[in-house]
Amino acid sequence: MGISGQTALVTGGGSGIGLGTATLLAADGANVTICGRTEEKLVSAVETISATAAEGVTVNYVVADVTIEDQITHAVSVATGITGTLDICFANAGGSHHLGSIVDADLEQVRATIDLNLIGTFLTIKAASAVMVTQGRGSIIGMSSGAGHFPHRHLWAYGTAKAGIEMMCKYAAEELGGRGVRVNAVQPGIIDDELMAFITAGGKLLDDYLEQTPLGRVGAVDDVAQAVRFLAGPESSWMTGECLAVDGGHQLRRGANYELLFG
Questions:
Q1: pTM of the model
Q2: How far apart are the first and last CA of the chain?
Q3: Is 158 designated active site?
Q4: Which pLDDT tens digit goes with each residue over 149-182?
């Protein structure tokens, strides 16, 4: 079993979990297209991915904003153009524009957070599934978060958007299963990457995370990449509608307290 010769699209593939996953998929023989909003970052990422890619694998990039439908549809078209099929889509792009309480939240920051995470994932699933249903197969993986599964104080806008992604993936899995398309998600805990560097560098918030994590360490990018690879490939062929927690057991305790960043 494997993914050699298959074609994959990874959104937000220029850094962090997206880059780590794209690197792993290409090393396992998949043709990989990454997309993101910053071309310079994507060019560097393609070099990194290509350095360990299996022989004969195609690695390329598309500058695309997942919140703009025409752009993500174009990214899917470019990825599909490599072999004429799209076998794997990792809807990874996301982030947070808002951090703080509900009481004094800025509406535009909240909307931007929901748009990037929830709407961006919706548009990615829509574009990818349009190709996959015509070929009768495919695996889509959404990016959730522990914050979308249980409360992390002051991370509510991001967490709410991620909770929406989990439910969207379930709806998509139910709808598309009969047409050969599987939809699952991963739910990372605190990961030592660019996005979380302001936490993993040390401090009260990191201490809080570690106290609530039974395995007692932050995660590595590859921890999540391996989970995505599993959901992408034939090893998980009878799985759909699931959300895999990759968090060192954090979900067994309470969410982190982001209020610690303010005092």
A1: 0.98
A2: 51
A3: yes
A4: 999 999 999 999 999 999 999 999 999 999 999 9
